[in-house]
Specification:
Largest sheet: 6 strands, mixed
Shape: globular
CATH topology of the largest domain: D-Maltodextrin-Binding Protein, domain 2
CATH superfamily of the largest domain: Bacterial extracellular solute-binding protein, family 7
Strand content: 5-15%
Number of helices: 13
Bound molecules: calcium ion
Number of domains: 2
Radius of gyration: 22 Å
Order of helices and strands: HHEHEHEHHEEEHEHEHEEHHEHH
Length: 376
Amino acid sequence: MIRRHFLGRLAQGALLAASGALAACKPQSPATQSGAAGPAPARRGEPVKWKMVTTWPKNFPGLGTGANYLAELITQLSGGRIEVKVYGAKELVPAFEVFDAVSRGTAQLGHGSAYYWKGKSEAAQFFSAVPFGLTADEMNAWLYHGGGMQLWEEVYAPFGLIPMASGNTGVQMAGWFNREINTLADLQGLKMRIPGLGGEVLARAGGVPVSLPGGELFTSLQSGAIDATEWVGPYNDLAFGLYKAAKYYYYPGWHEPGTTLECMVNKQAFEALPEDLRAIVKNASRVANQDLLAEYTARNNQALKTLVTEHQVELRPLPDQVLRHLKALSDEVVAEVAAKDEQSRRVYEAFRDFREQVSAWSDISERAYLNARAAG
Ligand code: CA
């Protein structure tokens, strides 16, 4: 069957032209013909209508708008053949139910970050952020050219999900504190919102990690239910008004050196798409992945300036001694996670080996250059 309705849309750029022309010459895939899975087009020419649920507040700068951007890209690049409606946290499902919602097909796409799903698989955390792990650039290198993506796909496969990287925050901030952190003793009993492996490291250091979705941070900090919180970085933290609820803003984000955001796709819905639309969904996510990092890099320092000059935020580095201790604990905690099950062990070993080899290059490229630039 020739898919003539594609032909009118071939003027929409080289990518679409190439993929659309390919599709026009091919018969429909068996999955599309059977219509057995997901919301495949009911009739030729009707758009596929997908829902995207997110762990972020609707339209939240960077995170929520990054999800919106991906949704728009998918619609634009597909020439309107896929329409995506985006839902903020709690609009369709609560933030921490995104994984299950996409897994069972309530929504076809879910935007979040993989460390929220450690209850599903400990190994998921490696695809989000690892304390003292990879930077954004190194993470993309591991995922796209170092075997990381295949491992991530293996981890999500039992849940009927296909993961895609769809944003990176770059190095985050250590967070907002209502007490000074001068020595290791100051971490004792510190009740802090910090997700994933970073939270486990804080627990090892004597603190009390708490997991809360972003929308609950401000009131928890202001009410004193928590002593500290990390969120992302100046661009996002300014938007939440966290400076109104805490005095000190510490750096660097040792626990999240380059956090990957994800877009998970319901596998059945994805496989019901023709080949060209599958390529568009995957490549739209790749574009969104790079674009969000650029946005963070462009906006963070502008927001930091506002925080310091207009809101009199006290910006402080974590003491070297505290960072060294956290690094030693991080290595222990991450290795222990790896010992929990066979899959986590394999992911950990791949991650560890990649970090080792890429660090050697980063040391004499990015780090040496940044040192040289700062020294000048
Ligand atoms: Ca964070």
